[in-house]
């Protein structure tokens, strides 16, 4: 591979990591999400022009931020709003010092001191419809494409694109402050924020598209933001429950793929590779949620399910009957065909594949599952266990057609071949 090609690959990698932070930091400076995205893109273009010759800088994130800042100053100086905007941005935008970004953090610090968390709360403002809050935050914080978000929502791509555009326009027109709210307003937005964090985590845990099964940086970012939120709201049971859920699930990362990147099913994983520190932290967070009276919350129930797996030293030790019972309660708290599908998997382990298939067949025609590849994958697995191999092959092939993740597609086609 040529040095220029290596540089372009490095730029792509840096951009995936730095894009959310860059947009969040620029939004705090310019108070305009759309403008922040434009400035971030300009900085990326500059990197693509400069780095192949000059090399990747020692601190690429700071380089991108400084480049975007200079572009912002140029824009404001040639705009009739220059005086107003420069007053808002402050003296650091006028400075080209390498420590400008850090100085701005100190000058504009608040209770949380985290740009990404501010951006999440801004994106989850109640003025926006719930689906727009999630889509916008996944776009800005998770760095997901419109297509990836559409697949996560089981929705049409143009629909998601329109939601994002309208959400940014609404925030700009309403003059929503870029801040973490306090008091009742914070509580009002907390449920949306938790939902967004979990969706970001899930995109990292099981990537909807691409060549990799996982995007670990998204999992890490969701957990990091969740921990900050837990410190901010120490008496909120569901915040601790969500952190516990994400930590326990993330503990399996090293065991979820083989040396070639192919997925390894939960029951086949080498549990000695599970991260015991994350498990301990996750169980402690779940205990905290229970102590706060939140045992029946949706995230606490999911964390309790994850804890059943974490506590089983071997796959055969798993308490599948308890997991199926927890899914039944979860289905009552938050009715969903996806939850029922997960319950069917637990039932297959506790009672056998016939009982699981019976449950799956009651939900398989739900419109929300029409393009959900896991429905066909799970149904194929049940049919295979029942010896109905021709039917199983068709289901696995259907699942492979629907997934955009190359690792999953390869695995599902392998199952189809095996019958």
Catalogue the unreliable spans.
Answer: 95-112
Q: How does the helix and strand content classify structurally? A: mainly alpha
How would the global form be characterised?
globular
The value of Rg in angstroms is: 23 Å
Query: What does the average pLDDT come to?
Result: 86
What is the strand tally?
2
- Biggest sheet descriptor: 2 strands, parallel
Roughly what percent helix?
A: over 70%
The largest beta-sheet arranges its strands as: 1-2
Order of helices and strands: HHHHHHHHHHEHHHHHHHHHEH
Termini separation: 40 Å
- Number of discrete helical segments: 20
Percent range for β-strand residues: under 5%
Domain module count? 3
What would your notes on this structure say?
The chain is an all-alpha fold. The protein has 3 domains: about 1-110; about 115-235, no CATH class; about 235-300. The protein contains 20 helices and 2 strands. The chain has a two-stranded parallel ribbon with strand order 1-2. It is globular, with a radius of gyration of 23 Å. About 40% of the residues are buried. Mean pLDDT is about 85; it is low at about 95-110.
């Amino acid at each position: 591979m040529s040095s220029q090609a290596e540089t372009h690959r490095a730029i792509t990698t840096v951009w995936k990591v730095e894009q959310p932070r860059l947009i969040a930091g620029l939004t705090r400076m310019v108070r305009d999400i759309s403008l922040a995205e434009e400035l971030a893109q300009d900085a990326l273009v500059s990197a693509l022009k400069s780095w192949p010759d000059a090399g990747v800088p020692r601190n690429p994130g700071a380089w991108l931020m400084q480049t975007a800042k200079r572009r912002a100053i140029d824009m404001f100086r040639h705009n009739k709003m220059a005086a107003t905007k420069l007053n808002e941005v402050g003296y650091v935008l006028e400075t080209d010092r390498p420590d400008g970004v850090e100085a701005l953090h100190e000058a504009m610090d608040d209770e949380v001191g985290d740009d990404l968390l501010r951006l999440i709360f801004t994106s989850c403002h109640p003025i926006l419809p719930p689906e727009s809050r999630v889509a916008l935050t996944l776009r800005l914080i998770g760095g997901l494409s419109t297509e990836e978000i559409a697949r996560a929502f089981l929705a049409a791509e143009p629909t998601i694109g329109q939601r994002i555009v309208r959400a940014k326009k609404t925030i700009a027109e309403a003059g929503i402050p870029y801040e973490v709210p306090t008091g009742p307003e914070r509580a009002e937005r907390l449920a949306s924020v938790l939902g967004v964090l979990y969706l970001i985590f899930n995109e990292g845990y099981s990537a909807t598209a691409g060549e990799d099964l996982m995007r670990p940086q998204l999992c890490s970012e969701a957990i990091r933001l969740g921990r900050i939120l837990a410190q901010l709201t120490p008496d909120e049971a569901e915040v601790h429950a969500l952190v516990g859920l994400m930590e326990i699930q993330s503990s399996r990362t090293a065991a979820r793929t083989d040396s070639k990147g192919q997925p390894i099913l939960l029951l086949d994983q080498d549990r000695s590779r599970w991260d015991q520190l994350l498990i301990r932290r996750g169980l402690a967070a779940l205990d905290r949620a229970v102590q706060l009276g939140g045992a029946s919350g949706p995230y606490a129930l999911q964390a309790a399910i994850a804890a059943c797996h974490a506590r089983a030293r071997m796959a055969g030790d798993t308490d599948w009957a308890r997991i199926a019972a927890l899914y039944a309660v979860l289905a009552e708290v938050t009715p969903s065909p996806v939850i029922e599908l997960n319950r069917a998997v637990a039932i297959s382990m506790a009672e056998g594949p016939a009982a699981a298939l019976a449950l799956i067949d009651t939900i398989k025609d739900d419109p929300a599952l029409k393009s959900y590849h896991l429905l066909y994958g799970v149904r194929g697995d049940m049919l295979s266990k029942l010896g109905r191999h021709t039917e199983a092959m068709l289901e696995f092939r259907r699942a492979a057609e629907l997934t955009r993740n190359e690792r999953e597609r390869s695995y599902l086609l392998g199952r189809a071949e095996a019958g």
